[in-house]
Design brief:
Blueprint lengths: L1 H32 L4 E5 L6 H8 L11 H8 L5 E9 L3 E8 L4 E4 L3 E4 L19 E2 L13 H16 L1 H5 L1 E6 L4 E6 L4 E6 L4 H17 L7 E3 L7 E3 L3
Parallel strand pairs: 1-3, 4-6, 6-7, 9-10
Antiparallel strand pairs: 2-3, 4-5, 7-8, 8-9, 10-11
Helix pairs in contact: 2-3
């Protein structure tokens, strides 16, 4: 009886060890199969893939079944990044879909630095990256501050709105500044003309100002008006004060 009991116990222990060892070996094989071997980064213009991958802090044993939300939070620490989505592509690839902060203007800090529509200073070197952006007038940020002062942030938001509303217009603008509590001056260099309008002026109103400028140049191609004033309802005021 005792001998039979020992045989049963030994058989159970052996079977358990075999089952456990077999499952462990299978799990280890699966871990090796799904180990992260490649990280693809999409949507970058200013940051580099190497910078984003370094922020993931992938452990040597990391697999694609890791915490994608945690990886996304780590990547979003990059100052040029506003949103990251991490997708798995088994067996061994992660795909990062990145939304970057977009420079909308250059602010004197006193050096010229790009800022986004929130007035956040961006770590992009204008000398290395060609940025055809308007100069932002207004107060300079405090030393070490990541954001412009409130008036600078409001102006950056208006430039961002103009960029979305009428990119062609903004591409001609060399400088944007305040001339009143809610009045903006957008200065062109060629031709040398200033557009004056209220914050939130719709794109159609901007186009009416462009039409008025075109009419003035048709009448006298050698002389552009100095100011295109869009602040008055139902009319565009074309002025020359030189």
């Amino acid at each position: 009886m005792h001998s039979q009991l020992r045989i049963v116990i030994a058989t159970f222990v052996f079977a358990s060890a075999w089952w456990t060892t077999g499952r462990l070996a299978s799990a280890m094989a699966d871990m090796a199969l799904f180990a992260v071997r490649d990280v693809q980064v999409r949507g970058l213009t200013y940051a580099t893939a190497e910078e984003l991958i370094a922020l993931l802090e992938l452990a040597p044993e990391a697999t694609v079944w890791g915490d994608t939300e945690e990886w996304a939070r780590r990547a979003e620490r990059h100052p040029m990044v506003t949103d990251v989505r991490v997708r798995r592509r088994p067996p061994g690839t992660l795909v990062l879909e990145v939304e970057e902060r977009r420079p909308v203007a250059l602010a004197a800090t006193p050096l010229l630095e790009p800022v986004d529509r929130l007035g956040r200073r961006l770590p992009v070197d204008p000398a290395e990256t060609r940025l055809d952006l308007p100069l932002l007038g207004g107060p300079r940020p405090f030393p070490g501050a990541r954001l412009l002062p409130a008036r600078g942030r409001d102006l950056a938001a208006e430039v961002g709105r103009l960029m979305e509303a009428d990119t062609a217009f903004l591409q001609r603008v060399s400088e944007v500044s305040w001339v009143g509590e809610r009045t903006v001056r957008a200065r062109w260099s060629d031709p040398a003309v200033e557009f004056v309008f209220e914050v939130g002026t719709p794109p159609q109103r901007i186009r009416e100002g462009l039409i008025a400028l075109g009419d003035a140049l048709d009448r006298d191609p050698t002389h552009a008006p100095e100011i295109i004033d869009l602040r008055f309802a139902d009319q565009v005021v074309v002025r020359d004060i030189r």
